[in-house]
Amino acid sequence: MKSIYRAASASVSAFAIGAALVTAGSAQAQVAAAPAQTPATQAPATKAPATQADASAQGIAEIVVTATKHAESINRVPMSITAASGNDLAAAGIRSADDLGKIVPGFTFTQSAYSTPVYSLRGVGFYNYDIASTPTVTVYQDEAPLPLSAMTRSASFDLERVEVLKGPQGLLFGSNSTGGAVNYIAARPTSDLHAGVDAGFGRFNAWELGGYVSGPISDNVRVRLAARHEGSGDWQTSATRPGDHIGARDFTQLRGLLDFNAGDRLTGKLSFNAFWDKSDVQAAQLIQVNPLLPAFANPVLAAQPLVTSNARIGDWTTGTHPRRDDRQWQVTARFDYKLTDTVTATSLSSYAQYRQFDILDPDATALVVADTTDSGSIDAFFQELRVSGELGNKSRWIIGGNYENNKVHEIQSLDSSDASGFAPFAAFFDLPVPDAIPITSDQHFENYAAYANLDLALTGTITAHGGLRYTNSSDTFTGCTGNSANGSLAIGLGILSQNNPAALGPNPACTQLDSNLQPATTHNKLSQDNLSWRVGLDYQPDTSTLVYVTVSRGFKGGAFPLIPASSVTQYTPVTQEKLTAYEAGFKVTFLNRMVHVDGAVFHYDYRDKQTLGSVVLTPNIFGPLNLLVNIPRSKVTGAELQVVVRPVTGLTLNGGITYVDSSIGEFTNFDPYGAVQDFKGEAFPNTPKWQWSLAADYTFALSQGLKAFVGSNANGRSSTNGALGENATLAITGYTLLDLRAGIGAPDDRWKLSVWGRNVTNKYYWTNAYKLADISARFAGRPATYGATLSFRY
């Protein structure tokens, strides 16, 4: 707890001297009543249902959220929710879901070795790195799912707010949300003409230009257009080639929205979202050399420099430049028709197309150890139909169904010609070491679901909640590890299988071997169904107090891996996981709305948790290999507390802390280094026990036509580990980060100039540590950055 005290002291001191500061704003479900600091992609308040309400001059305002697919005050929703406005996200420098941990204690982002982000809430996450990896924390854009994590990069753009729902959300938000859901709500078109522009410049020649225009084109039709581009120079240097640099940012986002009314009963919302990402891929840092097969290790590998204290140093293969070439577009259509004054029918449709071509080098060396070209595509369709209504003042019901159809194609071309795992080909078979090996996956996901939920007022103060969802899902999979470009992989495996170099043929389609040591393409289908549910009671004696208890159950569908396989057994899927959550919480506002406190305790009974494990095959010529596995039983117990205080006009103080105690039951498997272990009692990988955030914001008048603002935000977490086995090499140490900001502007935010700093203490930290082939490596967090932003509004 000393680190919390030091962070708090730093924040208060910075605030006291009026230093430049950046704040996460009102992190847990609260927004200060002070005028918002509006970013270029955030219009003045619209008529959307998420505007602030019931704020006094000095009190804390409420946010209206749609976490239950019904607009209501966040303080009346009986679940743990963090909400933040688009202004808060911009102030905290949050550009994607990767950064939400700054303002959401309990939310964890892990950068996987192959760039696919992994999100966890309260310890519930699924670490896997192909683009078909289905997450436990699903991201939504205006309630339409972005079903795979690779698709989420542009969601945090031009926003009214974000809602982070903790605990299983499979009832109203669909499959796979065992950990929670993140719902981004776009800023909608306005009834009057508004426009804005932001321009910013910062360290590493980083620059940003964004803007929007919003308004009516007729009495019943309103439109909004927004765009943003982020660019920067390189920020990392090669550990072996000081003149070689990487880290440039080249990211463009576009959004178009159209809202219309067709009479008094029908409304429609159409949206188009797109992004183009041509940024460099972050360089990993080598922390240890540990060959799969020490006797065949490349002697040059041992001479590769280790990096342990400088985020700006990493390494990649000489003559290459890891980078992305990714793009995505999504169209969404929502129609609401009022069947009666209290009953509404809703149709929500979405189609998204994602394309990827990434050059990756996660081995953190100048050698060819795990160099990969990753190309792929996602085509995702979603359709939901629902009917909802009210039964008196506090009772509501909803009945609906949805259908998902997602197709994913991916090819990873892996070159490990300097790795020890393929060295026996030259030593034993007198063959060239296999070079580029294509690993191909085709998956077709289909989900059918029907659900119903009832919130029934039993008395004037007590409400009962109950809901069910039935889901039928299937995943059709084809997996193939192809022959190396030089043909030696098939010849070597042919010798292993039948002592016959020609056994696999001159150019087999796939080289993984079945139980008869014959090459075989893997075709498989995983079909499962489940029944998610939620029951609860809440007690609300007045508008300032809510106490609730809930029990809920959620499921995450099974999954197939995309990995270099020498055996068909490595393509064995993990089956669906089940999580039963018990939670009790409260939300209280007092002292004339100057103080708000949220708290919750929770316990998760976790069955068949999916995780990335390892396997050692016979004969053991490749060392430990990746394999998806189910952990039969595990549990999570924890608590969280958030306090927001607004003691005087213009000043908001915010603090939050989450405690998560995760524990694996009886489970024996290989650790990443090939040792058999019983992992009973271990905490989940990438799950810190403590996470916290502290923030302060102060806005005050300098003169009749000029105001100033200062603020700070500190966030941190305790230590964890990057993999099963709790090997010290893969330890992820705890850290606390401090952001600062200050600025001046017009009282009505027509213009604003701000200066900001992030990670101002230049703390060296890392978000993931992993074992891959012959090395152990990690990804460091960004060093100190600083800059200025100028905004105009009309």
SSE topology:
Blueprint: H1 2-16, E1 30-32, E2 60-62, E3 64-65, E4 72-73, E5 81-85, H2 86-91, E6 107-111, E7 117-121, E8 137-141, E9 144-146, E10 159-166, H3 170-173, E11 180-186, E12 194-202, E13 206-216, E14 221-232, E15 236-238, E16 245-246, E17 249-262, E18 266-277, E19 285-289, E20 313-314, E21 326-338, E22 343-360, E23 371-391, E24 395-415, H4 423-429, E25 437-457, E26 462-481, H5 488-498, E27 522-542, E28 545-556, E29 577-590, E30 595-615, E31 625-645, E32 651-664, E33 668-670, E34 676-678, E35 690-703, E36 706-717, E37 720-721, E38 731-732, E39 735-745, E40 751-758, E41 766-772, E42 775-780, E43 785-793
Parallel strand pairs: 8-11, 15-20
Antiparallel strand pairs: 1-2, 3-4, 5-10, 6-7, 8-9, 10-11, 12-13, 12-43, 13-14, 14-17, 15-16, 17-18, 18-21, 19-42, 21-22, 22-23, 23-24, 24-25, 25-26, 26-27, 27-28, 28-29, 29-30, 30-31, 31-32, 32-35, 33-34, 35-36, 36-39, 37-38, 39-40, 40-43, 41-42
Provide a brief overview of the structure.
The chain is mostly beta strands and 794 residues long. Helix content is 5%, strand content 52%. It contains 5 helices and 43 strands.
End-to-end C-alpha gap: 46 Å
Domains, number? 1
Alpha-carbon Rg, integer: 26 Å
What oligomeric assembly is this protein in?
single chain
Task: Specify the CATH homologous superfamily.
Answer: TonB-dependent receptor, beta-barrel domain
CATH topology: Maltoporin, Chain A
Q: What's the helical proportion of residues?
A: under 10%
Beta strand %: over 45%
Structural class per helix/strand content? mainly beta
Characterize the overall form.
Answer: globular
- The counted number of beta strands is 43
Which spans of ≥5 residues are poorly predicted at pLDDT below 50? 1-56
Please describe the biggest sheet, giving its number of strands, its sense, and whether it closes into a barrel. 22 strands, antiparallel, barrel
CATH architecture: Beta Barrel
Q: Number of helical runs?
A: 5
Name of the level-1 CATH class? Mainly Beta
pLDDT averaged residue by residue: 88
